[in-house]
């Protein structure tokens, strides 16, 4: 068995790099950070110092431990100094050219024992690995924002990655106090894929004039979600949410299930980027207080309309599409059913894992909801994943070992 990781290199000192450096330093690792942009490391260090000071204030950390953690953070202008660590986490901007260049250079600078991890949210880890001489040591390590608070890490087992390296990255995540889940190198990994219908189905419901924004948000909060889909998109940022939607859609070769909604683009075009712009689906006052729904998305009701949906119907539609998506991830071997449920609870704060939830509602019920929708809109977005239908028909469970 290899020694536990004691030194970590971090490439990029932005939002994510700073967070990763912080949790690693707090966990007792020596952390070398490289960011070529003038002042980037100092900004990150100041942010980290502020975060640690608040933890001291709240008595979650002693002053001595905060000081010791800060002392374990080191900036370096040299790539070979971060590449001397047992594990390097790359957290530079989501740009394929930038990242392939960084991986080529890291690969050349690092000894063969060093694991190179990427925090990419949407690029293929295999693609980054393929630019190196040692693809077996390239693994995805997808942290969530804000890193110090979010406990999930998706460990992406790229096709050429050696299993011991995948395990070592999972072990490193645990060392940082995180919960790792292993996923294959597929679009959106687990969380950004299975979460898509939470937003997209809500957008379709509102777009079809079947319920209002507040009604959908209220319905989903009513079954335990901390925020409704529109409140959550406003918090994430319309631009970020739309970019992820588009990326997943393109990577699945324009499968109707992932098709973004024109309303997303319309709000982005209108500069309504969410809370950060004080304007998204809702209006916000400068102190952050939420106002009403933006009238720009109100639905015209001067023509014939369909019967509006009840809160339960909204819940059933959104949940059924999430369960179907989670089932598709199981069917495609993206991750184990347990990992998918854990990832959705920790990565998105869902009140329950979608597969467990689907079984509580009854898989036959979920299939029934999807079949009705598919009959109405037969473009493929509501097609039932065969594994889900089969389990529903034989009263089976995602959590039973395969026969
Ligand atoms: N922000 C999020 O919510 C989030 C969540 C999960 C994953 N990610 C992923 O994490 C990565 C980083 O995102 P971010 O939000 O921290 O970006 P960011 O823009 O905040 O930070 C990127 C940092 O990288 C530095 N940088 C640029 N080129 C570099 C290079 N060649 N070498 C070293 N440093 C370089 C920049 O100066 C900047 O400080 C992206 O791949 C992103 O998709 C982001």
What would you say this structure looks like, in words?
The protein is an alpha/beta fold and 403 residues long. 48% of the residues lie in helices and 11% in strands. The chain has 18 helices and 10 strands. It has helices at residues 15-26, 40-57, 63-71, 79-82, 96-109, 125-129, 163-175, 191-194, 196-207, 213-221, 229-236, 238-251, 262-269, 311-331, 337-348, 354-361, 363-376, 386-393, and strands at 7-11, 30-34, 73-75, 87-90, 115-118, 138-143, 152-157, 179-184, 282-284, 290-293. Strands 3-2-1-4-5-6-7-8 form an 8-stranded mixed beta sheet, sandwiched between helices. A two-stranded antiparallel sheet has the order 9-10. Helix 11 packs across helix 12 (238-251) and helix 14 crosses helix 17. The chain is globular and about 65 Å long. The model has no long low-confidence stretch (mean pLDDT 96). Residues 11-17, 34-37, 40, 91-94, 98, 102, 119-121, 143-145 line the site of nicotinamide-adenine-dinucleotide.
Radius of gyration: 22 Å
How does CATH name the architecture of the largest domain?
Orthogonal Bundle
Question: What is the end-to-end distance?
Answer: 33 Å
CATH first level of the largest domain: which class? Mainly Alpha
Q: If helices are DSSP runs of H or I spanning 4 or more residues, what is the number of helices?
A: 18
Order the strands across the largest sheet as they lie in space. 3-2-1-4-5-6-7-8
The major beta sheet can be summarized as: 8 strands, mixed
Instruction: List ligands, each type once.
Output: nicotinamide-adenine-dinucleotide
What are the low-pLDDT stretches, counting only 5+ consecutive residues below 50?
A: none
Shape: globular
């Amino acid at each position: 068995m290899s020694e536990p990781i004691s030194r970590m290199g971090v490439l990029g000192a932005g939002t994510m790099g700073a967070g990763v450096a912080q949790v690693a330093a707090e966990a007792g690792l020596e952390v070398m950070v490289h960011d070529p942009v003038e002042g980037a490391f100092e900004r990150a260090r100041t942010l980290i110092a502020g975060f640690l000071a608040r933890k001291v204030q709240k008595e979650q950390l002693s002053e001595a431990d905060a000081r010791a953690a800060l002392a374990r953070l080191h900036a370096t202008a040299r790539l070979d100094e971060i590449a001397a660590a047992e594990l390097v986490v790359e957290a530079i901007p989501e740009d394929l050219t930038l990242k392939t260049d960084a991986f080529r250079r890291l690969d050349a600078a690092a000894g063969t024992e060093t694991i190179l991890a990427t925090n990419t949210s949407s690029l293929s880890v295999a693609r980054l690995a393929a630019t190196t001489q040692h693809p077996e040591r390239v693994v995805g390590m997808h942290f969530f924002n804000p890193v110090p608070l979010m406990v999930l890490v998706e460990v992406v087992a790229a096709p050429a990655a050696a299993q011991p390296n995948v395990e070592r990255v999972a072990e490193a995540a645990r060392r940082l106090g995180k919960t790792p889940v292993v996923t294959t190198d597929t679009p959106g990994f687990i969380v950004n894929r299975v979460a898509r219908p939470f937003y997209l189905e809500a957008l379709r419901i509102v777009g079809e004039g079947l319920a209002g924004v507040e009604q959908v948000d209220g319905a989903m909060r009513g079954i335990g979600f901390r925020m409704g889909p529109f409140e959550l998109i406003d918090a994430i940022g319309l631009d970020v949410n739309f970019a992820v939607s588009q990326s997943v859609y393109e990577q699945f070769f324009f499968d109707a299930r992932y098709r973004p909604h024109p309303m997303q683009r319309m709000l982005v075009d209108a500069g309504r980027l969410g809370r950060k712009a004080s304007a998204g689906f809702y209006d916000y006052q400068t102190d952050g207080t939420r106002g009403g729904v933006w009238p720009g998305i109100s639905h015209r009701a001067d023509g014939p309309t369909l019967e509006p949906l009840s809160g339960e119907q909204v819940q059933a539609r959104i949940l059924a599409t999430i369960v179907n998506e989670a089932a598709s991830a199981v069917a495609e071997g993206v991750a184990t059913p347990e990992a998918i449920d854990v990832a959705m609870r920790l990565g998105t704060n869902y009140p329950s894992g979608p597969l467990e939830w689907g079984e509580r509602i009854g898989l036959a019920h979920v299939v029934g909801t999807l079949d009705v929708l598919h009959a109405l809109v037969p473009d493929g977005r509501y097609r039932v994943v065969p594994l889900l239908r089969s389990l529903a028909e034989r009263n089976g469970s995602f959590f039973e070992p395969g026969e």
